[in-house]
Specification:
Strand order of the largest sheet: 3-2-1-4-5-6
Distance between the termini: 24 Å
Shape: globular
Largest sheet: 6 strands, parallel
Number of strands: 8
Structural class: alpha/beta
Length: 191
Amino acid sequence: MTIGVLGTGGIAVTLATMFARAGHEVRLGSATGASGAPGVTGGCCEEVVAESSVVIPAFLGVQGAVQQLGPWRAGLRGKILVDITNPFTGGHVDFVGPWAAGGTEDLAAAFPEARLVGAFKNVWWEAFDGGPDSVVPDIRVISDDADAKRTFLRLCAGTPFTYVDGGGLDQARRVERMAFSGVSSAGLFAA
């Protein structure tokens, strides 16, 4: 399976590199088509969506992901769409919307024909730097599509982290709020 990561910010390059090191074919989608990640093939976002079985958009916030992915809606049909966003306010000090709303649920509503999985939502991207003092908590993976979740967990098996089944999409709001137990960060994503 080809994993397509969309974006050029720190989290996009980190995730693309991590999955490539785990032995997967990885494409990194950007406006210029350049990769910027070792062992990863670059391409424009539209190509990467078309050629990937799993798509991980690394755009700022749920609304940014919905807006950026809109033109490729048909290309996402039947594919595993991995949501890594959190509905943070601009300063990353709180969440937009009420407690009862979860970002992954919003993305699922916007792309109902994609097979949505939420992952990497309960950690900050700095945790993936792998420094000697880095401690990464178990990464919660959520989805209402049991087969998509199992497939994604299999793809994660070769990475250096521990993944746990976090339940269905109704758990998005809880998993997303776990990020605040880590270190705050801003300006992490770029399209």
